[in-house]
Specification:
365 residues; alpha+beta; 5-stranded mixed sheet; 4-stranded antiparallel sheet; 12 strands; DNA-binding
Length: 365
DNA sequence: TCGCCCTCCTC
DNA sequence: CCATGTGAGGGCGA
């Protein structure tokens, strides 16, 4: 049986800020993504547990967080994404030493297959992860929450059971007692919509889901999702811990200074996004065969339009002219003003593989 | 297969 | 009366 750990750095951005300035630790710390709309336009990226006591949450409008913290000494800090990336990179290097195989999921989360390192013994696995937590804290002053179990999905759920600074082991014999009692939306991939549908089927806990009729699930969710749900609830996902695959798309998004439907006002934003996207592609040695444009409207609904190109490209002018050509149709279709706009590059191909193809073509001539 | 929409994922 | 930014993946109609 495998032994897999899921490691989640606690309230990551905000904890980085605490490390940077330990004197703020006992006060609410809120890391903000600013939109440029006025002083407080934007959302909460994450916040420390002191702020959470006041009801502040990820995704919340900054203005609302400020209301909740009125009269309280609190620290609202604009996100320093490059700094968090750098800290994350260093922590990941430490974690790798404690794993047979390693999978970085995001800036603050990773899976570790530790089966061989602990000889398949959950208790030894726990000791190993305890050591790793200590080293991360010694070197970076950061805490994390770790879940250990026999599959990725259960390790992930376990990591959330004792936050922050937790270390939870779920052995196979603990599955029913510890996991099946939890609500279904503790399973990654089950959000508000899926939970609502499951509830109408009388399925409330992960245990309910584990025992649910697979044919009913297939009828409601389709085969792919139904199979995942059923396996996940039983902790039987066969997912390997392996290096993350390369991105399949890149996108850039911006909030407009003011809601508008005017091409003239939108174009400068579009140009900037296409410029950034072109840079992203070049940095990663990629060409895109597809370019997409999406508008987020006043009511936060989304409309989009995309186009497949004849030739894959990373050229700014080509990307910009394609995006520009998609814009009028979006504007015509929209009955509401645009609030945000995004450009996406997809159907990516490696430049290196393309070059070897060209060499091959040239040689054969 | 393409294009569009929906759902979810965190921070 | 306010709601960021990035990316994955599925369903579905044409």
């Amino acid at each position: 049986m495998k032994v897999i750990a899921c490691v989640d750095l606690d309230y990551f951005y905000a904890q980085c800020e605490e490390v940077l300035n330990p004197s703020i630790k006992d006060k609410p710390v809120i890391v903000c993504m600013l939109s440029g709309r006025g002083e407080e336009g934007g959302a909460v990226a994450t916040c420390n547990y002191v702020a959470r006591k006041y009801g502040v949450k990820s995704g919340m409008a900054i203005a609302r967080a400020k209301k909740l913290l009125k009269g309280v000494e609190a620290y609202f800090i604009p996100a320093k994404l490059e700094l968090y990336d750098e800290i994350s990179r260093r922590v990941m290097e430490i974690m790798k030493k404690y794993a047979d195989s390693f999978e970085e999921v995001s800036v603050d989360e990773a899976f570790l297959d530790i089966t061989k390192l602990c000889g398949g013994d959950f208790e030894l696995g726990k000791e190993l992860m305890k050591k790793m937590k200590e080293e991360i804290f010694e070197k970076e002053r950061l805490t994390c929450s770790v879940g250990i179990s026999f599959s990725k999905v259960i390790a992930k759920i376990a990591s959330g059971l004792n936050k922050p600074n937790g270390l939870v082991v779920v052995k196979p014999e603990d599955l029913e007692k510890v996991i099946w009692v939890l609500p279904v939306d503790e399973i990654p991939g089950i959000g508000p919509k899926t939970k609502e549908v499951l509830n109408t089927l009388g399925i409330y806990t992960i245990g309910d889901l584990a025992k649910a009729n697979i044919l009913t699930l297939i009828r409601v969710f389709g085969k792919k999702v139904a199979t995942y749900l059923k396996l996940a609830a039983n902790g039987e996902d066969k997912e390997e811990v392996k290096p993350a695959e390369k991105a399949k798309q890149y996108s850039r998004m911006v909030t407009l200074k003011e809601n508008t439907l005017s091409v003239k006002e939108i174009l400068p934003y579009l140009e900037m996004l296409c410029k950034e996207l072109s840079e992203d592609l070049k940095l990663n040695n990629k060409l895109a065969k597809g370019i997409g444009l999406a508008a987020i409207l006043e009511d936060l609904s989304v409309i989009s339009k995309s186009k497949t190109l004849d030739q894959p490209t990373n050229d700014f002018n080509k990307i910009f002219s394609t995006a520009k050509a998609l814009l009028p149709d979006l504007i015509t279709r929209s009955r509401k003003l645009f609030r945000r706009i995004s450009v996406r590059a997809y159907n990516l191909v490696d430049i290196s593989s393309l070059e070897s193809l060209e060499r091959f073509a040239n040689q054969s001539r």
